[in-house]
Amino acid sequence: MELFVKEPPLVLVKTWYELLVNAENDDSKSHAENMLLGAFGTQEAVADYLKKHKIIK
Q: Which UniProt keywords apply (predicted)?
């Protein structure tokens, strides 16, 4: 039996990342960070996904 890890939709990840980078208040940034970490588990996994989809270099 194979285990497939389902990634969240790209548009959702982009939204969370943009909110993390551009939010004007700490609550919004914290929420975006929590959503990304909840979806991917680690900051490294978030970065890998963002690089894979050319959102960051």
A: Plasmid
- Spatial CA neighbour of 16 closest among 1, 30, 2, 36: 36
CB-neighbour burial class of residue 39 (10 A; exposed 0-12, middle 13-18, buried 19+): middle
Q: Which of 43, 44, 36 is nearest to 7 (CA)?
A: 36
- What pLDDT score was predicted for residue 3? 67
Whole-number pLDDT of residue 6: 84
Q: What's the start-to-end Cα distance of the chain, in Å?
A: 35
Please state the pTM of the whole predicted model: 0.87
Cβ-contact 18, 12 below 8 angstroms: no
